[in-house]
Amino acid sequence: MLWRLAIVGFPFIVLLLIPGLMYGRSLISITRKIREEYKEAGSIAEQAISLVRTVYAFGSETKLIAKFSAALEGSMKLGLRQGLAKGLALGSNGIIYAIWGFMNWYGSRMVMYHGAKGGNIFAVIMCVTSGGISLGRGFSNLKYFSEVVVAGEKITKMIKRVPGIDSDNMEGQVLNNFKGEVHFNHVKFMYPSRPETPIFEDLCLRIPSGKTVALVGGNGSGKSTVISLLQRFYDPVAGEVLIDDVPINKLQVKWLRSQMGLVGQEPVLFATSIKQNILFGKEDASMDEVMEAAKASNAHTFISQFPHGYKTQVGERRVQMSGGQKQRIAIARAIIKLPKILLLDEATSTLDSESERVVLEALDNASAGRTTIVIVAHRLSTIRNADVICVVHNGCIVETGSHEELMENLDGHYTSLVRLQQMENEEYDVNISVRVQGGQLSILSKDLKYSPKLSFVDSRSNLATNSTIDSSLSGSIHKDKKTRVPSFKRLMAMNRPEWKHAMCGCLSAALYGAVQPLNAYVVGSMVSMYFLTSHEKIREKTRIYVLVFVGLALFVFLTNIVQHYSFAYMGENLTKRIREKMLTKMLTFEVNWFDEGQNSSGAACSRLAKEANVRSLIGERVSLLVQTISGVAIACTLGLVIAWRLAIVMIAVQPVVVVCFYTQRILLKSMSKKAIKAQDESCKLAAEAVSNIRTIIAFSSQERIFKLLNRVQEGPRRESVRQSLLAGIVLGTSRSLLACTTVLNYWYGGRLIADGKIVAKAFFEMFMIFVSTGRAIADAGTMTTDLAKGSDAVGSVFAVLDRCTTIEPEDPNGYLPEKIKGIISFVNVDFAYPTRPNVVIFKDFSIEIEEGKSTAIVGPSGSGKSTIISLIERFYDPLKGSVRIDGRDLKSYHLRSLRQHIALVSQEPALFTGTIRENILYGAASENIDESEIIEAAKAANAHEFITSLSNGYDTNCGDRGVQLSGGQKQRIAIARAVLKNPSVLLLDEATSALDSQSERMVQDALERVMVGRTSVVISHRLSTIQNCDTIAVLDNGKVVECGDHSSLLAKGPTGAYFSLVSLQRNLC
């Protein structure tokens, strides 16, 4: 007969599935959209942090933070929808109380008309409704399953995706007798991201085996695309690329790339040691082979002078190394495996003359007769000795031949390029001859071709000297102090603007928390109803209880909607506020903070994405905490009123359970710290791998990256397993103690009933109340994982927010210059990078840069030329002495205001995701910039013509860091950005290094016009860039060894450093 009651109740229990399933589906959809929305914000933050020097130089912090904030709006609104959906779903679970009411009514009829026993009826109702409650509790965790589904969906899709060019596919031919003859046969190609812009229409090119072939031409002509196709980063749209007469799409991709060595235009090194970076070229190489490769690339000397030698950590994005040093390590990585085909894409563009000569000789010796070399270069010194020079114009080969053969065609493209590189200055028409070991060397005759490298003969790197800083100075290098983990109260204080929603949420949560003990009290009272003898009283009591249960159902629905929406509103606003504050604070830190490994762009963005996301801590966890406190307080009060003796015993055992859960929290907190550390390291490595994907693919280093990732995660993984076992033991103990308390309650309650001190009804009421209380405490205990993670996350958040920068960009007492003259002076400056305090860059360094004049700084790679720029921009502070502008110490200025008067064009062009127009506008001093001003700046940088040739013009998307554009195109946009700023001080750090000869000449003319009347600091190896400067300063060992204009320095003759330097460059040509 009792089966009827179970069958009647079961369909209603199934109703609980409907809101859960609907919530699950909507939650998966919303979670997916939230991830997509945050992707844009995350990209903005990643670029702001990784390109922090450019951000600081152009005062773009406010713009980027505004873009970041706007990008967060979408995910915040979706978060509110998510909170509302959860409130509706969990509120719908209140139907369980209506089911209690219905089954109570039906059970009473069975007692009255079918002779069923009250105890059996109560047991069936308890079983059915307990199953329903468990079902509802299970569906409340759909949030976590949905997050896993969304994350796993993308991961699975990525894992299952079979790329069109699959380097893991071991099928394909492997040539036993590989020669290295390359043939481009009627190739048509356009980049997939810009299908409307053809690169090659009908490219035909043959590269003989064992020969050196150079590709020259204008920026954007397709030179680097040849290398990309040869490496099979892309496949041609039509035609084919053949190696040894075999189409490369028939060859095994991994084997093909293993036969090639690549040195790119922008040197890519990884955040590991110098040795490990070189080993990316050949994993099983011995230390002797590593050193030989470094010697061949002229890198061994400066590496050996580092305190840790080959174990020196390079640092993310190589911020502590000069461009020339980075490039030499990249060359060593490429030649260590003695490749059959060597690809050099502007490989020596950042080397000084001596280094370039040594490297080119080493490459010639290492590859003589057995390696095919493809060189993409603008510099004549790099390509003039090539066996074949191919001139690329508009996607076609227009001229082919040796240097001498091409020069015979006086009207040819190559001859025109050479003329542009020749020095037309009258100073160079004079017949200066010098004695060199008894012979005549004409260094400036008309026949001599331009060699763009300018550097002091001595290639010893001052950056890598073994000098040490005085102990008094080294002590001044800033070290971050450990930050105390702040209180939860402080986090809540940041939610003060949402105090109304906080009140609504807490009140609703407290009211909902009261439902459990009230329901338990009603259920306990209801048991006695079945033992009444009067049918009329049973019907009367039944009506009351049914109304109470229906009221509870409506009450649960309303309170859940209000509390979850309110807490979602609080959590989303707090998360957005924290992310904005964190990024804003990070963009006030000195550059050295970003140089440190634990503050890499990957780790910092991981903090913004995960640790700043405190919604679960404020929302789900706070609501559960308030519910628990409310429920326990009401349960204890009711218990003491109903049967104080039994209540005291039941209350006394609760702390034992609490202690168990507290122990669990401590264990989980320790696990959380290790998990966060592993996650940060993994994010850092993954971010770097993705950013440098071309280099990884080119060297087939995927497995090496996977091994590094496993190594980073292995330690925390083992520790996590061990501590998970301990946490499981503690959790099991807690659950066992709950069962023990139930046994104790039964025993002591039975004694009290037997002694006549309480009645059975009171016992049932007390029992149900404290069973629900124990469950509430158990639920609170399950949140210890989130609380542990949340505690560490909050600590990490406030560690950033509380940190005081050592270089304050918004000093309220700083001098606000309306305009600056541009008189720059270094006075007795000592400097070493904080990450390498024992390596001295400058010792008692002094130099004066005149107002409105142009000053060129020349010297060997790593001599500290770019450090001068960094100190002028105040990316770092000197350890001793001072850097002054207009007689004022830089430290006395309001830094952001000062930087408004300074423009920087760096050696490696840094563009942001967005359109070309948006990137140029980063140089704008105000928002009110006309289109005509943008166009004029682009024309000045020789960028307008190529921009208008693009299908979308100034609205063309540059891609991540300008990936859609060539190196020269990116550099011209960077120059246009600087021109738009109209600065008083112009800093050019190899500003034209990535331009072809024609573009360089036009940009140089434009820069010279821009430089008129402005203080300009020019760092360059190219003679054409600095020969017209008012002053040229030659650096050696952190000192200015010569200073003067071009003519006066040449007049010193062979004994002069500058004269000897010019001689060296002419010999190299």
UniProtKB/TrEMBL annotation:
GO terms for biological process: transmembrane transport. The chain crosses the membrane at residues 6-24, 87-106, 502-524, 544-562, 622-642, 648-668. Coiled coil: none annotated. It comes from the Eukaryota. InterPro entries: AAA+_ATPase, ABC1_TM_dom, ABC1_TM_sf, ABC_transporter-like_ATP-bd, ABC_transporter-like_CS, P-loop_NTPase. Residues 1-147, 505-789 form the ABC transmembrane type-1 domain. The keyword Ribosomal protein does not apply. GO terms for molecular function: ABC-type transporter activity; ATP binding; ATP hydrolysis activity; ATPase-coupled transmembrane transporter activity. Pfam families: ABC_membrane (PF00664), ABC_tran (PF00005). GO terms for cellular component: membrane. Residues 182-419, 824-1062 form the ABC transporter domain. Keywords: ATP-binding, Glycoprotein, Membrane, Nucleotide-binding, Repeat, Transmembrane, Transmembrane helix, Transport. PANTHER family: ABC TRANSPORTER DOMAIN-CONTAINING PROTEIN (PTHR45136). Belongs to the ABC transporter superfamily. ABCB family. Multidrug resistance exporter (TC 3.A.1.201) subfamily. This is Uncharacterized protein. It comes from Brassica campestris (Field mustard).
